[in-house]
Amino acid sequence: MGGVENGVTLERPRVLIVGGGFGGLYAARAFRHSAARVTVVDRENHHLFQPLLYQAATATLAPTDITAPIRWLLRRQENTEVLMAEVERIDVARRVAVADGGALTIPYDYLILAAGARHSYFGHPDWETAAPGLKSIEDAIRIRQRVLLAFERAEKAARDDERRRLLTFIIVGGGPTGVEMAGMLPTIARDTLSGDFRRIDTRRARVVLVEGGPRLLAAYPDDLSEAARRSLEALGVEVRLDTRVTHVARGVVEAGGERLEAATIIWAAGNEASPLGASLGVPLDRVGRVIVNADLSIPGHPEVFVVGDQAAMTSRGKPVPGVAPAAIQSGPVAAANVKRLIAGKPTRPFRYLDKGDLATIGRYKAVARFGRLHVSGALAWWLWLFIHIMYLAGFRNRASVLVEWGYAFFTYQRGSRLIATRDRPGAAAHGV
Amino acid sequence: MGGVENGVTLERPRVLIVGGGFGGLYAARAFRHSAARVTVVDRENHHLFQPLLYQAATATLAPTDITAPIRWLLRRQENTEVLMAEVERIDVARRVAVADGGALTIPYDYLILAAGARHSYFGHPDWETAAPGLKSIEDAIRIRQRVLLAFERAEKAARDDERRRLLTFIIVGGGPTGVEMAGMLPTIARDTLSGDFRRIDTRRARVVLVEGGPRLLAAYPDDLSEAARRSLEALGVEVRLDTRVTHVARGVVEAGGERLEAATIIWAAGNEASPLGASLGVPLDRVGRVIVNADLSIPGHPEVFVVGDQAAMTSRGKPVPGVAPAAIQSGPVAAANVKRLIAGKPTRPFRYLDKGDLATIGRYKAVARFGRLHVSGALAWWLWLFIHIMYLAGFRNRASVLVEWGYAFFTYQRGSRLIATRDRPGAAAHGV
After folding, report:
1. DSSP state of B216
2. ipTM value of the model?
3. Which pTM does this prediction carry?
4. A128: which of A342, B123, B143, B338 is 20 to 30 A away, CA to CA?
């Protein structure tokens, strides 16, 4: 163990942070003036700005616009190193993380787990190939390729029924991800692509959003759910509420007694935390999240913390939602508690500051809640833009980010429409 | 057949252009005021600005910076459509192109083949997996991923010999592609990456450039070859001239009696034209290029033209080199000849205007020849910059291109370092 004892400075304490997303990155940044030695491990080399992931998936932004190498973001922290490795389990007794099939073991004095969550298929993992989800940049590239190829194939299609199927897009899940994807698809079909094709009318693309519950954006207030639905329908999206998906196969979705054929099916439903939490040997909630104490540590191991989407956190007696601000806030709180432990002080509980909800609908509208204030339409969209620029700019020069993002958003449509691998049957659907 | 006969306007003539690279794209643009119906077919969805491909491969530019959808570039030409399909053979007797495994047949009245060329492995196609080439954006992404992963693995490496192997990069082929790649690798290792790693010193990366002949840039004047070699050696590159590669396997290159171990081997040698030319049934040259007449048509079929890297063209009695300006010039000449045939006029021969040679060495130097004028060093680099901006801007607003490219070149280093797929054994090595 590192730290100060009886006035004698021992070896510097080692802090291991697993995950370079919002939780892990903001936690790491909190150590920048610390004497601790910090190691950040992620199986990807990049930090991903997830709120804009749906734009990469709909060819509006390029993947490089919303990612940055983790080691570049932390380059100025001399006490911090970054390793690209896949942590498979945590040995809490020996205080080591085991990665890369056992090839790499990383000892720690303090651990912050921020490995996130992904979508889930309600017990049908075999649906994933037919209906890819949207959690990583790889997912976004795959979806973008499928969407663009659907239009390319439709342009070549010899038969009407084939063309209709190719121009039908189904999105499963009416949460923010599904709603944002559903809003962008008709937007790019109409604004971006319509002049570029000769044989097909891209505006005739059919987008169907399927949601099992009675409302879109279930976590939002009723009036904003309704505003979102109306805005989507104004864009031509067919919204199916109270419609549970019963079967998914390649090109087919069965839901609410209806059989829908579509070349492109996108999964934006369900939630399950990283399996890494299971290796801690402590209770998990229904979706696999680690149930943490008020100070974000786990029962029986005050030196181990879990934050962000991977944790089931409670604040002021209420569960904390799995949203970006929660990850951004909990990371530094866990880091502060680690620093208190190092200094021999008591830890403090996490107090979540609910900054509201925000989802875009198409290119120029959004729905937003800030405290009790509900906003929808174009005004909400400008608020969304401002907030995301401020968050993106946490690491970068604000003016340059604004220019770059603005330019990317309004003009890179063309550049982000790259399909980088050829449409070979069975080939991994990767694009850039 | 289309055209005007006895004062009666027949059906509009159909022009098929195979390939959306420099040759095909510039040929298509030449038809913008024509009455012909033009179809451009490419197996990719994008046009690639190849001169900057080595920058995408060395994580200096993002792939989306140097590509644009072909159908977007041609969107304003009402008479022109774009299909994404792979043409497998041409039936010159029936005047159809057969694509997508026979699923698509495209009839034509006039054909312009611009399917380009790729690198070759001197009769060892099995070397390709171990030593990928650089011709497409997919290639650039694959190389970039290997380069970035090599540094990531080196950071994790437990043993010195493993680290050395991971930090060794071999490039085979001392033409412009190899020289440009060889110049960029130490540049990114030193300028871009060096502050981001803790356990390795990226400046100790070893770059070896292997060339079978006595000079780098064999097509350039002697003094420029020498300037290139000196500049590369000043960057720390080990240049091996008169060194033929005898064997390539995963992680190993045997050349000139030496055995070199490197995690990353890049192939930038050899040349072979698209196999599509073989289906024309006319003589090909040693590297598979179609030997064309002075007006770029093929023997026996005045309605079929071949341009760019896929053609063995002659101008003023001298062979035309397989360089970008030759493709850019020959495309419109073939198009002009098609228009003359439609109007019942005689065709004209292709006159190649040799605009010189240009290759960069690292980030701030270049070697260039313009006519008899030889330039090297920083001045040549600025000329290179100017020329590429002007060419890139052929389709786009110049000011925005300059801003975008400049920003990309100087700052996107971070953005273009994205590895989009996880490093799984056997997985396709794709990154963004």
Report:
1. S
2. 0.88
3. 0.89
4. B143
